[in-house]
Design goal:
Its main location: cytoplasm. By secondary structure, this protein is α/β, with parallel strands linked by helices. About 45% of the residues lie in helices and about 15% in strands. Bound molecules: fructose -6-phosphate.
Amino acid sequence: DKGNFRHFMQKEIYEQPDVISHTLSSFFDMANGRTRLPRGQEVDFSKINRMVLSACGTGYYAALTGRYYLERYARIPCDIDVASEFRYRESPLSGVDFALFVSQSGETADTLASLRHAKAEGLTTAAVVNVDESTIAREADIVWPTLAGPEIGVASTKAFTCQLTALAALSVAAGVQRGVLSRDDELTLAKALSEAPRLTNAVLKLDSLIERLAHDMATKRHALFLGRGFNYPLALEGALKLKEISYIHAEGYAAGELKHGPIALIDDTMPVVVIAPYDRVFEKTASNMQEVAARGGRIILVTDERGAASGVVKDAELIVLPDMPEILMPIVYALPLQLLAYHTAVHMGTDVDQPRNLAKSVTVE
Ligand code: F6R
């Protein structure tokens, strides 16, 4: 039932404050600000030497963000690959003792095959999975559930932000166990994560502003998405969302890669969506934006109050989010990208919930 919403995708975008809050509650004891893993699914993170992560599509972008989290907060060395490559790559797994898979459906053929491969290689396997009756949930040694509820729209939205939430929380738990984070750090990060429902709610208030920007996006044939660091995987996810449901050709790049090729595409017909909160790499991305602007590219800058105040590009379209701690940025910044793709597709009249050629669960390779 779509309730008052026009599409399941829109409903699921709007459910995010609630389902993120549910997902958080399974990784935190909110009363005392401590992380705790779901009962029976505990892991001694201090014993992990090296981790491999794998998934497909949007789950892969969540895992890519997970690597940033796990390396930053828990100092766990991470390898990562899309599941269709991981399962056949025959990479030597020496030194890797733990494998983490991310899947909404828990049935994706390549992800399942990768899980079985990792098990056969003797690794401990864990899965961040949304459907708890799924094959991946049954076969993984450890299951860390996302509590997004059923996701009907083919383009993943709430499952993605719940995956990010789970991965952020796991990284904090791992960081504490590994002695990378102090008790104070844990409290600070837990408190930061507990703000995710409030902040995602605040971002939903930007809906009509984003809908206006989508009018213009709907007239384009191509779009570029740029981000750095924690927000680089979001550039990939923003481009994927747009191409899946609006069929506009979109590419996501690490902002630093701009001058190594994609800058050749920039002219006044090319919209460039830049995800750049005022974080430790903002100045770097700012110079990429100046390169785009100097070539007539039209920038949509998704930033925060401080980023907007920096006045880096004069005629950029701005989507200004509240200031927030770094750990929250991938979770909260996902929403404006989802809304941009959604409204663009609605303007174009495509079938938002059932885009052409796509299936919700990809059970064949
Ligand atoms: C994108 C999308 C797909 C899935 C991918 C993996 O919006 O939904 O890219 O993320 O097919 O599916 P799961 O997470 O079910 O393994």
